[in-house]
Amino acid sequence: MPVTKKTGVNSETGIPGPAYNQGPDVWDKVTGKAVYGIDLQLPGMLYGKVLRSPHSHARVIRIDTAGAFAVPGVRAVLTASAIKNKPYGIVVEDEQPLAGDRVRYIGDEVAAVAAVDEESAGKALEAIKVDYEPLPAVYDPAEALGEDAVQLHEQYSGNIAWERDLERGDPEQAFKEADLVVENSFSIPSVHPTYLEPIACVASSDYMDNLTIHTALQSPDVVREIISAALELPLSKVRIIGPVMGGGFGGRVYGNLKLYLLSSLLSLQTGAPVKMQLSREEEFSVGRPMIAAQIKMRMALRKDGTFLAREADIITDNGAYSAQAPWVSKTLSERNDALYRIPHIRTRARLAYTNKVPTAQYRAYGNQAANFASESLIDQAAEKLQIDPLQLRLKNCTRAGDVTGHGLQIKSCALAECLEEAATRIGWHNRKKNRGYGISAGIHASGSLVLNQDFRGASARAVLELDGKVTVFTGEQDYGQGTYGAFSHIAAMVLGLDARQVRIYCRDTLVTPHSQGALANRQTTIGGRAVQLAAEDLKKLIEEAASEMAGQPVKMQEGRLETASNRDLKLEEVARYYHYRTSGLTLNGEGRYVPPPSAYDETGYGNISVTYSFAAHAAEVEVDRNTGALTVHRIAAVHDSGRIVNPHAARGQVFGGMTQGLGFCCYEGYLFDKGRVANASLADYRVPTAMDVPGMEYSFVETEDPEGPFGAKGLGEVVQVPVPGAIANAVADAAGSRVTELPLTAERIYRAISGGECER
Amino acid sequence: MKEQVIRFEINGEKAEVYADPTLSLLHLLRSRFNLIGTKEGCRKGECGTCTVLLDGQAVNSCLVPAGKVEGKKVLTIEGVTREGALKGKRVHPLQQSFVEKGAVQCGFCTPGMVMSAYALLRDNPSPSPEQVREAISGNLCRCSGYKQIEEAVLEAAKTMQEKQG
Amino acid sequence: MSYMVAASLEQALKILHEKGGNVQVIAGGTDLYLKKPLPDLVDVSSVPEILGICRDEGMLSIGAGVTHTEAAASAVIQSEAEALAEACRRVGSPQVRNMGTIGGNLVNAAPAADAAVALVALGAKALLVNHAGSSREAFVEDLYAGYNCSYVDGSSEILLRFLVEPCGQGMGSAFMRFAPREALSLPLVNSAAFVRLRENIIEEVRVVIAPVKPAPTRLVETEKLVLGCKPGEDIWRKVEYTAASEVEVRGSLLRCSEEYRYHLVGVLARRALKKAVERALNRQRR
Lengths: 760, 165, 286
Fold this sequence. Notes:
The structure holds three protein chains of three kinds.
Chain A: E1 3-5, H1 26-31, E2 46-52, E3 58-64, H2 66-70, E4 74-79, E5 102-103, E6 109-115, H3 118-127, E7 129-134, H4 141-144, E8 160-168, H5 171-177, E9 180-188, E10 200-205, E11 211-214, H6 220-231, E12 238-241, H7 257-270, E13 274-277, H8 280-285, E14 292-301, E15 307-319, H9 325-334, E16 344-353, H10 367-385, H11 389-396, H12 415-426, E17 436-448, E18 458-464, E19 470-474, H13 483-495, E20 502-505, H14 522-550, E21 554-557, E22 560-563, E23 568-569, H15 571-581, E24 587-593, E25 609-623, E26 630-640, H16 647-667, E27 672-673, E28 676-677, E29 695-702, H17 723-735, H18 746-754
Parallel strand pairs in A: 2-13, 11-12, 15-16, 19-20, 26-29
Antiparallel strand pairs in A: 1-29, 2-6, 3-5, 3-7, 4-6, 8-16, 9-14, 10-11, 10-13, 14-15, 17-25, 18-19, 18-24, 21-22, 22-23, 25-26, 27-28
Chain B: E1 4-10, E2 13-19, H1 25-32, E3 51-54, E4 57-60, E5 73-75, H2 77-86, H3 93-100, H4 110-123, H5 129-135, H6 147-164
Parallel strand pairs in B: 1-5
Antiparallel strand pairs in B: 1-2, 3-4, 3-5
Helix pairs in contact in B: 3-6
Chain C: E1 3-5, H1 9-19, E2 24-26, E3 41-43, E4 53-56, E5 59-63, H2 68-73, H3 75-80, H4 82-89, H5 94-99, H6 102-107, H7 114-121, E6 125-130, E7 135-139, E8 144-146, E9 149-150, E10 157-164, E11 171-178, E12 189-198, E13 201-210, E14 217-218, H8 220-226, H9 233-245, H10 258-285
Helix pairs in contact in C: 4-7, 8-9, 9-10
């Protein structure tokens, strides 16, 4: 039976929480000493800048760089013809370091320069002359899929970067037999992760072409492989060292590959370190937002509320190049089907190329977009059937032991309890006048296995230092979400030490174990498990060495080494004993966690994750009927993330994720003027400020998951998933009609109230 | 633009620098004084990561021409740390409570947040939660949802009041 | 090229005179980096004549160099020019309000400048002096030459102060703003109103709306509608309709549609006017 607990308290798990959620660099951060990418300086460093296409789509006729070379202080000027320019990509290889004969969006990289200072680099860009022949462009993804549409990439005909047609059960029959069919179309814009530190990197190289890139990434080991392949440099010559990361939220999984490749090329050419940085405007206009989606969805139900079938036709907007958009499209189009028992499913999803900013990924991976559509539709059905939306969800929600339509094996699940608790917390049964209430559920993979089907798990090393302290080497990444705090805590628990005696060494691909990185909620679930195993291995090695040293069996308990004859050995004594005996080695525990075999196919379809996290959120809102102005008063979040290992970090994840969900639902979203990003600034791309945040509360329903370390499941992504559905349903409740387009601006809400008209 | 001498006080010390007075104070702090705790997030006064105190008031240093600080006092996060250190602690009470309340995640907004909070507590030693939110409304944070930051500022206010009292 | 900090008005005027037009006056400087290229600059933010809030022959005299923070916090402005305090409180962010001045807000001539909207509703006059030392007075709304373009010539003229009639017996003002975010946000529409009541009858009224034209715009028809009326529930519906009907607004991709902006003009004008009337009624009772 799951135990419901009050806010952030974790007394019953028996796991003592670390004092703070932060990693060891928290004091550097709070005093301003922490060094981020933008702060990096290396001796002899040059500054790189990029010349970008002013056209959405054009043929590049001629590039004249003579003027740029003439600018004093300029050390290198690169164009497509001057480099190998090998195609690369994450899912599909549709990009090159520099655009060759064709540019496909406003911002496409045409040339790069390196100079002794920013000013000279800027002047050099101005001195490059490019002749373009503008081509017709396509901006609307549905239009791009049309027969006569302008084609962006020859190798992807019909502008389709990725597509999927899925049918489970017999949806056609189910729709025929249904008592009720509801349907609607939903529109969700592109959103940017908006990490507060713009992406920056410094690439340096030596005469042997050993390349070191200093940049903060969520998946440095994966990026390293892409860079090695794209530059045709042996992998051993590429090293990535991470400074402190100023936020990631999925946007720094692969960061900005263009920037890393161009700074590398400029460094290899000049022999000097080259720093490149995106301006905030570039972050929005050439950085990588998450795909926009148009979702047409139908649901079939029985009179009693039983879900029979769901059908979705989804078009996602890839922009000019693809990055991770196919994977995001896949999650967006599939994952949400696992939230409820839906026997019959049909999904058609297409990812369309358009002449707009290329896309990538963002926290919650499109799952929040699908949530907005499906949870809105469920409330439409509830209204038609006159069933309480909470009861309708409880009737159909997924439960532990289920295998879902797409084959997800649900080993632990407290979704029903989450729904009931969220409803209670918001006052579902005791509503205030003039307020609207909405509820919504969410699921997210916790420890995705299909990023690299041959490399599904994680590894870690735990080393006993000569002073008796422990260093954990990990390739996982912390950008403030508390990973390192959790890791030192996990290792400390295994070894019976204080977490402060465990140091985390990270962010250096030469030294740290290789990892898939901080994404797909795999840090705690998979990375943490590896740390646990490494610490267990180290404990065993310590006991062995200590036994040898003492000449009698030694057990390590609560951090103490005790011989059979009750003599205490010190950790540093054992460390040094082993060190001398082996002429310099240290006790080195290794942990590898290889998740159990899972049932999915080569396209990553099936049971794609170690386990799954669940959540339900409920919202209380107020709408000004005269203007449509929305006030979100409260959001109550109730989560099943298994056991909560670090309640302080969990708190940060929940509030932060809810606020990003609020932004996604009510404030954010790209605006395009044809192909140009119209709101490429923090003034016009509006993330919530401190004055926009509602009352937020949360609790956990802790399930015992068989896979995660100490039964823990991921939290960081799922927390954003239910927010849009909860707010949208609350707004519909308050307004009496539904907005189907995000963000829920005052104008859209007002139009919904007034039936589309703006009354004067 | 031609460089000229700018004399001002930075973190309690007198400073004299030859610099282009139309460059931003942010640029001056980071590139001439190596005070990298003042962050650059947008260069347009829209994110608050570059917040410093100019004669006691929170300002976006990216919008302040260097020439403007002539004869004025500038306080940065490094100065706040030093102020804490001078009182026999490692850090200022605000920084301490930011850590204790979990208000630091990626940390990029943190120096600017601390500066805005510092300015608030200077004028208003016991603010309400609403006043805290308003005081940090020019400082974006993408990690926290602001909740822990608000709590940290309120907690620091309490600590500092107790010490005063 | 240079950056000069003027310590006195005399010094500032001397620089303007010597530079013969090749110079730009700045105060808070918050919009400096948005305009390029930079000419020679004269920083007048320390000139005593443009600072402070005081009374001058029965008028409130507000320095052009008063920051938004100072204006919003001023007890005198809060009680006798509420609209201006409310407007200044909502500009940008605390950091911007600490630097940005009311005078700069006007000279910068952005069409939705909050402080300027309030000043027009309050019937404020601006006091200016040029490099030759001759001064002039002008109504705030008459200083707009076009979008983001002012008749205040920053190369030869200094905006010194604003003169505002304090709200006394039977008078009231209010400012309203509709923005997509609670901070760091430009308004979709803002509005300010001033009324003077005598025996519950509106005897004097100004209702201002922006962004409609380059300058904050007086709603002349709406003012006519309510002038001489006793404000009651029956009138507000008409106010809303008249306000929206007498202006021409444009939609924008970044803010909202034209239709919705028309609607907001009506709602905000009504709300500002209603609030101003409430305050005037309160003052009448006292």
